[in-house]
Design goal:
It is a single chain. With 269 residues, this protein is an alpha/beta fold. The protein contains twelve helices and nine strands. It is globular. A six-stranded mixed β-sheet has the order 1-2-3-4-6-9, with helices on both faces. Helix 2 (67-80) crosses helix 11. It has helices at residues 30-44, 67-80, 95-101, 116-119, 150-158, 160-169, 175-181, 193-205, 209-223, 228-242, 246-256, 263-268; strands spanning 6-11, 14-19, 51-56, 105-109, 112-114, 126-130, 134-136, 172-174, 186-188. The chain has a single domain (6-192, 203-268), classed as 2-enoyl-CoA Hydratase, Chain A, domain 1 (Alpha-Beta Complex), CATH 3.90.226.
Length: 269
């Protein structure tokens, strides 16, 4: 399969997937998620590969959903009565299941990791970040709520109070602060980021694949037992209320027209 939004390379037993829309700061689109799913499944089926590193081209890891190609299009679908929610993902992409069953996944975060650019890596096994990286849970700024079971994974990584602070302020948090919070597992310099992530991936890939996946399953199931499908169903039900809301429309319109949103006025109209 030829990819438009990502690049896939290998280095020994390590596969490297690069989000490749640098002109849009690697903003997420439904097509990108489908390409990621295909690439990860192909790597999982290759016995020569043992671990996966995901990074971004250019100065950003992923600056969230592409407002024009994702949110604007979704609002149009709602108007036409054809919207089909899957926790923000296109139909057929079960991201949490894919991450849980995959060979070890390591995020190499090189810049902005915002919105879905952050939630998509929360279920990864290790998050390595450049000291230049920044993380943001911007959902409330878009009149939305978090998705991809991130209301579970974020709280599990950083704790209840810090998860609230990140989600309710919707501000950017630097990599060093995120390491202290527990969101980032390893810091690196911008120059060494991918090499350090690949070195870690190679170390992991030297272990037996079947047992690596068994251990991943045990840690997910026994660390803090949870029904991820039920979590996503709750998130999805609230997202279904958010998508057609005046606040979400105001956020999208403000972004596209480069102005500050006025959520109080939008809610009152």
């Amino acid at each position: 399969m030829a990819y438009d939004s990502i690049l896939v390379d290998t280095d020994g037993a390590v596969a490297v997937i690069t989000l490749n829309r640098p002109e849009r700061r690697n903003a997420w689109t439904p097509d990108m998620s489908q390409e990621l799913q295909h690439a990860i499944q192909a790597i999982n089926d290759d016995p020569a590969l043992g671990a996966i590193v995901v990074t971004g081209a250019g100065k950003s890891f992923c600056a969230g959903a592409d407002i024009e190609h994702a949110f604007k299009a979704r609002l149009t679908d709602i108007d036409e009565g054809s919207h089909d929610s899957n926790n923000g993902m296109p139909a057929g992409v079960d991201w949490i299941k894919l991450c849980g069953e995959s060979k070890p996944l390591i995020a190499a975060v090189n810049g902005h990791s915002v919105g879905i650019g952050a939630t998509m890596i929360l279920p990864f096994d290790v998050i390595v970040a450049s000291t230049a990286a920044q993380f943001g849970m911007f959902f409330v700024k878009m009149g939305l709520v978090p998705e991809l079971a991130s209301s579970h994974f974020l709280e599990r990584r950083v704790g209840f109070g810090n998860a609230n602070k990140m989600c309710l302020t919707a501000r950017l948090f630097g990599a060093e602060e995120c390491e202290k919070l527990g969101l980032v597992d390893q810091l690196s310099t911008p120059e060494r980021l991918v090499d350090d992530a690949k070195a870690l991936a190679a170390e992991i890939a030297g272990n037996p694949d079947r047992q690596l996946r068994m251990i991943k399953g045990l840690l997910r199931e026994n660390g803090v037992p949870n029904d991820y499908k039920a979590i996503q169903a709750k998130e999805g039900a609230l997202l279904e209320q958010c998508y057609p809301s005046a606040e979400h429309r105001e956020a999208v319109d403000a972004f596209l027209n480069k102005r500050k949103p006025d959520f109080r006025k939008a809610a009152a109209e």
